[in-house]
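Reminder to self: tokens first, then the designed residues, so the page reads top to bottom the way the pipeline ran.
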């Protein structure tokens, strides 16, 4: 069942309830979550490993679904890590975009008639 209106906080609460019901808190040290996130990121890369750029843009429905689940794994660990460290990952992402906007100004666009 999709949860399209959920926020990351809603997702974090659901993840916490899931972990609590299984007594997994002892495994959720920031170091372990960061390590698991990297493993999942590698699994996200695996389907693309030998594809051309064009192939990576035209995934079959089955492969696209598999990639979506790997992306979800990355997000889930990132959300859990943020919760463990009391970091609002959405606020941090906005801050990082602000920094990047300053570091990398937009390209000038030619004006009509130039």
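Designed residues (114 positions):
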């Amino acid at each position: 069942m999709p949860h399209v209106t959920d926020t990351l906080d809603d997702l974090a609460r659901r993840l916490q309830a899931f972990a609590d019901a299984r007594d997994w808190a002892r495994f959720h040290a920031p170091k372990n979550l960061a390590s698991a996130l990297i493993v999942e990121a590698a699994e996200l890369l695996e389907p693309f490993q030998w594809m051309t750029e064009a192939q990576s843009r035209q995934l079959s429905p089955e492969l696209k679904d598999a990639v979506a689940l790997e992306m979800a794994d990355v997000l889930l660990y990132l959300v859990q890590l943020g919760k463990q460290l009391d970091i609002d990952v959405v606020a941090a992402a906005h801050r990082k975009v602000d920094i990047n906007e300053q570091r990398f100004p937009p390209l000038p666009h030619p004006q009509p008639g130039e």
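The mean pLDDT is 93.
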